[in-house]
Amino acid sequence: MRKIPFLSFMFALLLAFGQASPTAAHGGIAIDGSASDWGNLGNGSCPSAPSDNSGQVLDLSHTDCGLGANAGTEYVWTDALGDQRTDHWGGTGNLDLTQLRITGDANNLYFLLRSSDITNCNAQYMAIAIDSAVGGTTFLPDSADTNLPWGYERVVVANTNKTGYFTNDSTFTAAGASFCSDANNLWEISIPRADLGLAWPANAGDYNFAVMIACHNGAGGTCNAGTSDAMDVVTTVAGNTWNEVSDGTLNHSFTMGFSPTAVTLSQQQATPTTHTLWVIATAVLLLALATQHRLRRG
Ligand SMILES: [Ca+2]
Ligand SMILES: [Ca+2]
Ligand SMILES: [Ca+2]
Ligand SMILES: [Ca+2]
Q1: Which pLDDT tens digit goes with each residue over 180-218?
Q2: Could you say which ligand is closest to the alpha carbon of residue 100?
Q3: How far apart are CA 182 and CA 195, in angstroms?
């Protein structure tokens, strides 16, 4: 008798955390260094870029965003200006992430990363870690000296030396495409969804994402920069990026999922992750069953 309300509470808790706003993604992204194929922020009813260190989902309700041929969803993150570490490239804007956008279609995920000023496309080492299953590796590849709060199954990497992905056994595979435009101060990256090993469909919130810009060492890897090689990251921690990564861990992540036909993006979410919640729920369920068993025996 006591078990039912307790379990109901747990399911309600799971539903509450699992809620997101699934929507369809837009297609038609060309990896050409031009952002004209991404949402038209600030046009008519299309919202302006979100405030510093926050994210927003553009969807079909934003009719003036021009979300491409397949009309759907785009995730937009605004990163604070001038918060990059200056160990490499000094105070130039090369390693100062200012905007991240993510969208997809049935075949690819697409990423747009803007820096405040790109004077040299050899400067940036872009890394996007994706957590798609229990387990995985917590340290970012290429000796980036940066830990994550969860284990990744893939890390998408792009620089002038290589574009592709790492698996959690530190194996790199060339895949997809990237394009840096110093004139437009941005990188565009595409990676086949199949290479990322992501289930399709999956609920919004099923996958954790974390994003880092490091200095590119010119040979495909990262420049050393002490405790962490991250020069700028997607995080809500205020002030210089050092405030987030001085402990060697990029703690901030956000979540997404995928509908049967396209990417679905959830709003920015703080931890705990879906994985963590399932572990908690399973533990509580086992405890409840054990308690019931003891009561029956008593
Ligand atoms: Ca483009
Ligand atoms: Ca920044
Ligand atoms: Ca994992
Ligand atoms: Ca940290």
Answers
A1: 999 999 999 999 989 998 876 677 778 899 999 999 999
A2: 2
A3: 28
Query: How, if at all, do strands 230-233 and 263-265 pair?
Result: unpaired
Indicate the angle between helix axes 274-297 and 3-18, nearest 10 degrees.
180
* Separation of CA 247 and ligand 3 centre (Å): 21
- As a whole-number percent, the residues of the chain with pLDDT over 90 amount to 60
CA–centroid distance, 48 to ligand 4, in Å, is 29
248, two tokens: 């060697």
Q: Is the dihedral of CA 272, 274, 276, 282 positive or negative?
A: positive
- What is the Å distance from ligand 1's center to 40 Cα? 12
Rounded distance between C-alpha atoms, residue 154 and residue 128, angstroms: 8
CA of 203 to the centre of ligand 3 (A): 16
End-to-end CA distance of the chain: 15
Residue 155 CB: number of other CB atoms within 10 A? 24
